[in-house]
Amino acid sequence: LAVLGADTAVVLDGQILGKPLHREDALAMLAALSGREHQVLTAVALTDGEQCLSVQVGSLVSLRQITAHEAQAYWASGEPQDKAGSYAIQGLAAVFVKGLHGSYSAVVGLPLSETAELLDHFAIPCWQSLPAR
């Protein structure tokens, strides 16, 4: 039995921005990220009980200026409440994104290419085992 684990961190000026504790925390994070570029780091580990392999993928995300009204409305949507850095690139916050350099799937939370390589190393089929159409 293999076990896969992954986690994502948003890093701004060397500080990790985790999941917001409350509304004010989220609004402060969004204000700090507004108009800035930041790192998103996602680590993935896979073990079969005998060996463990891991990989870390770093991406750079640039956000446009986010107004206070937009940040408050975004918080009210409920989306940022359980997201590192208080935003989800794959959700409503996509409208805040000016640019991305790196892996979109890693920013979402699971770098697909790198995860497929880990699975392959353990001889665990990914999409390759799907029946032909």
Protein described:
The protein is an alpha+beta fold. It is 26% helix and 31% strand. The chain is built from four helices and five strands; from the N terminus they run E-E-H-E-E-H-E-H-H. It has a five-stranded antiparallel sheet. A hairpin with a 4-residue loop joins strand 3 (37-47) and strand 4. Helix 1 packs across helix 2 (68-76). The protein is elongated and about 50 Å long. The two termini are 29 Å apart. The model has no long low-confidence stretch (mean pLDDT 96). It comes from Pseudomonas aegrilactucae. This is Maf family protein. GO terms for molecular function: nucleoside triphosphate diphosphatase activity. Pfam families: Maf (PF02545). InterPro entries: Maf-like.
Primary descriptors:
Maf-like, elongated, alpha+beta, five-stranded antiparallel sheet, hydrolase
First-last Cα distance: 29 Å
| Mean pLDDT, all residues | 96
Helical content stands at 25-40%
Largest sheet: 5 strands, antiparallel
Strand order of the largest sheet: 2-1-3-4-5
Estimated share of beta-strand residues: 25-35%
Low-confidence stretches: none
| Main structural class | alpha+beta
What is the count of DSSP helices, taking H or I runs of 4+ residues? 4
Protein name: Maf family protein
GO molecular function, one term: nucleoside triphosphate diphosphatase activity
Organism: Pseudomonas aegrilactucae
Keywords: Hydrolase
